[in-house]
Each structure stands twice: as C-alpha cells, then as structure tokens.
Amino acid sequence: MKELALKHLAIIMDGNGRWAKERGLSRTKGHEKGANVIRDITTYCAKDPEIESVTFYAFSTENWKRPKLEVEFLMKLLDSYLKKELKTYQDNGVRFQAIGDINAFSAKLQKRIQDTQDATKENTNLTQMLALNYGGRAEIITTVNALIAKGKMILNEDDISTHLQTPYSDIDLLIRTSGEERISNFLLWQLSYAEFYFTQTLWPDFTAKELKDIISQYKTRTRKFGGLA
Ligand code: IPE
Ligand code: IPE
Ligand code: MG
Questions:
Q1: Residue 1's pLDDT is what?
Q2: Which ligand 2 atom is at minimum distance from the Cα of 58?
C-alpha cells in the first residue's frame, strides 16, 4: 500500500499554562519552555525530506482576551525568539513566514517579523509558519474582501485557496497537545480534509520523538477524501 504523504503539518501548541501551574511556576515560564520546543520540532521537520511546511499556532485573534501582562510577555517572547532563532533558521535552511494580521503588533515587532522573513526567504528545506494574531474566520473574510476589491463578483474554491495567506497546500496532519480537542479558529479552510491527532502531552513536554511516533501512526491511516479506499 502506498504510504501517506505528509507535506504540511500544523500544530496547535496548547498547555503551556498548565505545565507551569503543575510546577508552581508563573504561566510565563510555560511559554518560555514552549518556545524552545518550537525550535526542536522545527529542526526535526527541516531534516525530514518529505515535510515542506509546518505551521504553529502561536497567538490567536482570541488570545487578546488574556491579561495584559501575559499578552505583553508573549509579544516580548516572540521578539526574542525570532532574534535568537535566526541562526537556527539559517543553519537548517528554514524559511520563516508569519500568517495573521501583524499590523496589530508594535512597530518593533513588525520589523523583526519582516526582517526575519526577508533574511530567510531563500531557504528551501522547510517553511515554518507562525500564526500570529491569526484567526481562521478573519483569514477567510480578508481573502474574500480582497478578491471583491479586485472586482471579482463570484468566487470559487480555487480563488480562495490560492489567495489565502497560506496558499501552499492543504493541511495533511493537525496535532493538538494538552488533551483539548478543538480547532479554536485555526486554519478553518486548510483543515478541510486534514487528519487529526490529539495528545495529552502538554506543549512544553512535547518532543521530536513523540512527533516521530505520531507521524508513524498517521502513515498507517487511510485517507479517502470521500472516495473509496
Ligand atoms: C498555549 O498554551 C500557548 C498560547 C495560547 C499562547 P496556553 O497558554 O493556552 O496553556 P493552557 O491552555 O492555559 O494550559
Ligand atoms: C489556541 O489555544 C491558540 C493557540 C495555541 C495560540 P487556546 O488555549 O487559546 O485555545 P482555547 O481558548 O482553549 O480554545
Ligand atoms: Mg490553552
């Protein structure tokens, strides 16, 4: 039987707060540890010749509802992550791209995001997308409005698929950590026929070894896309 392809992996990184709480630490410590896991998983994906893109949900359009201090911490963490990771991106041939509406961020952070995208744009081993101020509904609305503004009156599926911020491919496999089983407004359009995997592991405890096992399990599945096996 032909092995399932895995070109585009998406991950909802969840459980940073609970990981910290279990240890009597502040939630921010969980976010810090979680950022290190993004590096490990990205490096692993860059070495897998089959995976072309990995998209991480880092900050949703709904996450602004969190306490101001936590939101500010996450913004600072993102800035220092991108600064520190530039070397990792270059060493591993990883192209970085943000998806979501980054206009809501500070000018400094927007510049960091833009500069990192520019500096890594020639890298071809893997595209790492970070979903930042991202919402699946917002993305679809933005896409539709942009097409209307261009004079499109009637849209088809291809119009939307090719004008989203993530036009590369549909998602093959979505992983959500921490035992929660929801999409939480992640890539609504692109997840249309994705395989789902939910693990109890909290994001800061997630490892490349677990990812490897999940991918092996995914490879045994049958994807029929509505047809017959
Ligand atoms: C995921 O961990 C990180 C972000 C959403 C930024 P959480 O912060 O949601 O962790 P829990 O769900 O409270 O444990
Ligand atoms: C989803 O996690 C968003 C990110 C991982 C960035 P949340 O923890 O914010 O989602 P809900 O509130 O449990 O749905
Ligand atoms: Mg959560």
A1: 58
A2: 6
Q: Write down the pLDDT at residue 229.
A: 80
- Tens of pLDDT, residues 172-200: 999 999 999 999 999 999 999 999 999 99
The answer to whether position 224 is within a domain reads no
Q: What are phi and psi for residue 206, nearest 5 degrees?
A: -70, 140
Q: State if pTM tops 0.90.
A: yes
Q: Tell me how far apart the alpha carbons of residues 118 and 112 are, in angstroms, rounded to a whole number.
A: 10
The predicted model gives 3-18 an average pLDDT of 96
Cα 7 from Cα 211, distance rounded (Å): 14
d(CA 175, CA 198): 6
Is 125 catalytic? The answer is: no
CA 200 to chain centre: 19
Among 16, 26, 200, 201, residue to substitute to test ligand 1 (most atoms within 8 Å of Cβ): 16
Give the HSE-up count for residue 114: Cα atoms under 13 Å, Cβ half-sphere.
Answer: 10
**CB-based contact 214:51 (threshold 8 Å):** no
Please give the tally of structural domains in the chain: 1
Is residue 227 assigned to a domain? no
Residue 85 lies in a domain: yes
User: What's the CATH number where 187 sits?
Assistant: 3.40.1180.10
Whole domain around residue 79: which residue ranges?
A: 8-218
| 63 counts as catalytic | yes
Place of tokens 């810090």: 32
